[in-house]
């Protein structure tokens, strides 16, 4: 073979090898990317109990579905949904249905629930009385002042037999919806974080579980626990996604990794007194 032709042939073979290697490399990278399943979940800065529960969920997600869970922590309830909406995170898990519905209406967003997590019964606490029946006439009762938690607190007062409500449809309850208040209770609206601290200055206070935990309120100061009934559906915590991603296969697998017997066991181990309860599959009456 002519030396010149041989060199041309060799050069052509080298080019082909390089091109083929490049194609294989790109294909391999794409395949690797497709198989790399990492989901970033926005949660509130958590307790060691919550961390232990998410550790169990993360193990299930990795072992059964090949999904790596990463977490972005927030300290302000207004931040996770913003991060979800702008794509900074893939999912969030911090809110209940009432909060999500209120958020969507106020911010013109369409975030949706793709699965349930836990429900945290709230309590009426008092440092002065041992039973809700002991609360005297004209006493002051503190409730959270944000719309969804205030509504929840009013429903708890209703369940405790202290007031009656008349609320239309899915609307949140407000003090204006109180139709009967036989003890003429004064309902004092406070920032949710202040309800526990107000116990010394009020007859009783409706306190969210996380704030009761943070304030280290003793269990014997709880004089009434929120019942789990038909009113509870709106207080179930959830995993949220953008509406456009509600059928995302990987995100559905994250929900499956959460809603397991292993997670249920972890919740019960971490919250033996029922501060948090598994919420998926609850039968509400």
Automatic annotation (TrEMBL):
It is found in: Membrane. It is a lipid-anchor. The chain crosses the membrane at residues 7-26. It comes from the Bacteria. Keywords: Lipoprotein, Membrane, Palmitate, Signal, Transmembrane, Transmembrane helix. InterPro entries: Lipoprotein_NlpA. It holds the Pfam family Lipoprotein_9. Its main location: membrane. Gene3D superfamilies: Periplasmic binding protein-like II. Belongs to the nlpA lipoprotein family. This is Lipoprotein. It comes from Lactococcus nasutitermitis.
């Amino acid at each position: 073979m002519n030396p010149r032709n041989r060199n041309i042939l060799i050069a052509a073979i080298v080019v082909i090898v390089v091109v083929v290697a490049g194609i294989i490399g790109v294909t391999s990278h794409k395949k690797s990317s497709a198989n790399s399943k990492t989901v970033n979940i926005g949660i509130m800065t958590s307790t060691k109990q919550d961390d232990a529960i998410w550790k169990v969920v993360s193990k299930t997600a990795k072992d059964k579905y090949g999904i790596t869970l990463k977490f972005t922590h927030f300290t302000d309830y207004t931040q996770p949904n913003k991060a979800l909406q702008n794509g900074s995170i893939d999912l969030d898990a911090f809110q209940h249905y009432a909060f999500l519905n209120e958020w969507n209406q106020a911010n013109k967003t369409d975030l949706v629930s793709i699965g349930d997590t836990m429900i945290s019964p709230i309590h009426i606490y008092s440092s002065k009385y041992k039973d809700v029946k002991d609360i005297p006439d004209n006493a002051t009762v503190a409730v959270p002042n944000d719309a969804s938690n205030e509504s929840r607190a009013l429903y708890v007062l209703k369940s405790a037999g202290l007031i009656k409500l008349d609320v239309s449809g899915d609307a949140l309850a407000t003090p204006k919806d109180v139709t009967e208040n036989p003890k003429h209770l004064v309902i004092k609206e406070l920032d949710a974080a202040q309800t526990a601290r107000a116990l010394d200055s009020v007859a009783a206070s409706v306190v969210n579980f996380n704030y009761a935990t943070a304030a280290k309120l003793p269990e014997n100061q709880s004089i009434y626990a929120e019942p789990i009934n038909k009113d509870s559906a709106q207080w179930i915590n959830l995993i949220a996604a953008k509406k456009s991603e509600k059928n995302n296969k990987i995100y559905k697998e994250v929900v499956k990794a959460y809603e397991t017997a292993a997670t249920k066991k972890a919740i019960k181990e971490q919250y033996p007194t029922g501060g948090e309860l598994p919420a998926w599959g609850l039968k509400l009456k």
